[in-house]
Design a protein that fits this description.
Strand content: 15-25%
Number of strands: 14
CATH topology of the largest domain: Rossmann fold
Order of helices and strands: HHEHEEEHEHEEHEHEEEHEHEHEH
CATH class of the largest domain: Alpha Beta
Distance between the termini: 52 Å
């Protein structure tokens, strides 16, 4: 079999799923402090618990493992010359409760197929339970028939994951909460809002108002506004085509205020920059933005750089594009980690405790 990566060198071990790292217990025996964890874990010595990762966001998976106190599972992910995916588990998973961390971000189809193949490999290796941890659920915006003769793709993806062998799903900030009903397996729907709210509370922005960029995001924005204790405004948006929007009216009092736009996905940033400009035109003093998933496709980076936004705050559910990292260095983009939140959810799922308490 000829693959693009035929030999796994020591330097390539990390990308194949091998972590050369001492467990916390061993480090403590040598007098070194154990890695800091958000929650005191009982999983570091649990042989019936493992976390694996695809190639979509390996850094996030490693950070989750650091919080939980376990090694990232060893695996080999390679490609044939034509791009066909080859995946092999390098350790025993029989009877194990397995979690796969793999957002279906760009290239969406490639990472989705990776995830399906990983699930199939784990199923055939007799894993006891397979939970797909999908911080960013691709195709979530295609959740209904809004035009004649179109697919409901988010339902199709749910069916594919279930058919492949997933027993449970852990997702983050779905575009529409009802997508949970597309799955015939249990779904734990997490929100990045606890991390975001904490950040903006610390910023303590003066005379703040939270803004929803469209009617569909009102519930999300209202949660922010309630938690921070500030008023809510809404932008009436009309979508004229795919990735094409036209801002119509600002509903609510924003004149003389600092505005915070709250959304779930920033794709081409067309909606974001038009909303920011509409708020400035309506008398807003400064405009910030927060979004869970920094897709940032096409001209998004250029639009954000040239926009009146003071700062765009996103999570690490998706790795930042290289050109976006330049904006991060200038302070235009700020990335918050959701690793601790996902780690706590994974621990709760494995230990069969309540996930909802994480939001109390």
């Amino acid at each position: 079999m000829k693959t693009e990566t035929a030999v796994m060198t020591p330097g390539a071990q990390q990308s194949s799923g091998t972590l050369e790292q001492e467990p916390p217990a061993a480090a403590a025996q040598k007098g070194k402090p154990a890695p800091e964890r958000k929650r005191p874990g009982r999983l570091s010595e649990d042989r019936r618990f493992k976390i694996f990762a695809g190639s979509a966001n390996r850094k996030l998976a490693e950070d989750i493992c650091s919080h939980v106190g376990v090694h990232l599972g060893e695996s080999r992910l390679q490609r044939f010359a034509d791009g066909e995916i080859y995946f092999q588990l390098l350790e025993n998973v029989r009877g194990v409760d397995v979690f796969i961390v793999q957002p279906t971000c760009y290239p969406v189809d490639q990472h989705l197929v990776e995830l399906l193949i990983m699930v199939d490999a784990l199923k055939r290796a007799s894993a006891r339970r397979i939970t797909v941890v999908v911080p960013y659920y691709g195709y979530a915006r295609q959740d209904r028939k809004d035009r004649p003769r179109v697919a409901i793709s988010s339902k199709l993806i749910a069916d594919l994951l279930t058919t492949a062998g997933a027993n449970r799903a852990l997702v983050m900030d779905l575009h529409a909460a009802q997508i949970q009903g597309f799955f015939n397996i249990p779904v734990d729907h997490m929100f990045a809002s606890p991390v975001m709210v904490s950040y903006f509370r610390e910023l303590n922005l003066p005379n703040l108002a939270v803004v929803s960029p469209d009617a569909g995001g009102v519930e999300r924005a209202r949660f922010f506004a309630t938690k921070i204790g500030v008023p809510l405004a809404i932008v009436d948006k009309r979508r004229t085509d795919v990735n094409v929007t036209e801002v119509m009216n600002v509903i609510g009092e924003v004149a003389g205020r600092t505005c915070l736009i709250v959304d779930d996905i920033i794709d081409t940033a067309s909606t974001l920059v038009k909303t920011a400009q509409a708020l400035i035109d309506a008398g807003a003093v400064k405009v910030y933005a927060a979004a869970s998933h920094a897709v940032l496709s096409g001209p998004a980076i250029e639009r954000i750089a040239n926009s009146p936004l003071e700062e765009l705050v996103v999570t690490d559910s998706i790795p930042l594009r290289e050109d976006a990292k330049a904006l991060e260095k200038t302070g235009k983009i700020k990335v918050l980690s959701i690793a601790g939140l996902l780690a706590a959810a994974i621990e709760s799922i494995h230990m069969e405790t309540s996930v909802s308490t994480l939001f109390n």
